[in-house]
Amino acid sequence: AVVSTQSTGREGQVVTNCTKLFMDQVYEKCKMPLARHATCIDLSGRKFDWCRETQVEFDQCMLEKMNIARDFTWYQDKPHSKFQTWGESAREFFTDVTNIIKHH
Length: 104
Hints:
This protein is an all-alpha fold. Helices cover about 70% and strands about 0% of the residues. It has helices at about 5-45, 50-65, 85-100. The longest helix is centred in the first third of the chain and has 39 residues, at about 5-45. The radius of gyration is 18 Å and the shape is extended.
């Protein structure tokens, strides 16, 4: 099939504009929780499990101020060790996902 670059360009612009509007709202309503979480991720070497506290804060802000809930929030009630190996973290993640799928 032949795809027109004009239509693809227009569609891309629509997506870009929509994303920018969304991120402008996130920045306006949840600026500090977003900044704290992004900083934690950057400073931790992208070890997301080290940033659960800031993730919960950001998720709560998004829910309260934008009415957007995160589907996968099972980590909020679970203790996480900062010294888990990648394999341990992956096994735990896949076990959790499997359990969520079973219960939905």
